[in-house]
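Field reference: sequence -> structure
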Amino acid sequence: MTPAPTAPPYVQQKGPAPGSSTHYALLFLPPAKHSAAAALYALCHEIGSVAHAVSDPQLAHAKLAWWQTEVAHAWQGQPSHPLLKALMPSVTQFRIEQGQLQALVEAGQMDLAQNRYLDFAALQRYTQLSGGAATQAMARLCGQTDNATSTWAQHLGQALKLTHLIRDVGAHARQGRIYLPVNELQQFDVKAHEILKREPSERFTALMAFQAQRAHRLFDEALALLPSADRRAQKPGLILARINRSLLHEIEASQFAVLHQRLALTPLRKLWLAWQVQALGRLG
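Structure field:
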């Protein structure tokens, strides 16, 4: 196993938490790449959490505007935030694009502007910005050599984001948010107030099964799109896919008991799944 890398203190503080899926996904990277990947993860998390962590909408808008400017300045060679300072040496080497981080700002702006999505096309746009763009940046950092790998990463990012949205339905309901398309709630005759009050029903279970099937399709599409030339380099993404798909199976086995609890895999199981992908190439 690769020894733990030495990263700047702020990156160590804000990077993937021990026991998290991302912690195990990055575990086998060489030290220099691990440090850069941890900085990228922390940066994506800080930008992506603004809309949910800041209760004052005006302040949240101001913070997102600051990040938008800060990312632009970093790509002009003038980063001031410690995470961007840690990341920038890798930007040119691995061709990470400014737009991949600016997409997270746009996703945050969407979160501030709306808490419902009319249909899946609208929700998909959100998942592309909040999930797909960050995963594309991580794919570059891990050593992408084939341009087609960007498409794999976009699909993977959307699948991961949908899985997290399914897992967090109850937590989002407590915030007054519903990341389930309105037309699909209508299709399954699930009322918004039932979700906001966290009232389970057979109709809700059927709705969530429909969402899980979509996430599985995206995982399948992603795996089919990964070029063989980049399969070894993209093992962190494959580990994330394995862990999160296992989580999705657990959620399905629970009959989507997500309204009152946040289901999760144990750290030991995540480590076992990560090792299976890393050492054995086992994806399912």
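Note: The chain has one domain: 21-280.
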